[in-house]
Amino acid sequence: MTYAPYTLDRAELHSRVELRVAPAPKPKKPQPRVWITADTHFAHAHIIDLCQRPFENVEQMDQVMADNWNRAVGIGDTVYHLGDFCLGNFDVALDILCELNGHIKLVPGGHDERWLRQFAKLKHVNDDFAEGMLEVLPPIYNLHHNGKHAVLCHYPLSSWEQQHYGAVMLHGHSHGRSGATPNRYDVGVDLNNFTPILMDEAIRLAETYVYGKAT
Length: 215
What we know:
This protein is of the alpha/beta class. Helices cover 30% and strands 19% of the residues. The termini are far apart.
């Protein structure tokens, strides 16, 4: 049997075959990350001399710390702040909070008492607005993160819940001057380049930090 030659032109080819272009893959949204920090002391000029911070004035200090924060922390991230956020009234705190990325969860320190009293009044008037800006946690807070147990407090504790079962203790207040204690780490900005650090890294440092050096 013989077949007559047949030529399929381009127009007929397109009429017979449905050409489908695969849609471009949607860019993956970055997964929210969890950070931790302490002892920023925004708007506290005297802290520069007290802790020998490398800034010429409080305006420079605040700007550098805010820039460092926003370069690291994404809008959808969470930041645990272990106290001494700023010095001043709530208007001062509000101006700073509005400049910082992420949802901030605060474990209060002594310098936060004044502006937090005003925050509590705001929360009573407009709870949704206040909760979207800041979440205030208890003075000692137990966090379970990626299979690890971390106890968060502004002050360095000498003993803490589940300490003998591997729980770590993360704190501020000491400005890098606390004595070495196994499974404990100072997450304050003076010890961490004036920048929040990832929670996973803070826990790792607590587990390996011995006598002033990370092993």
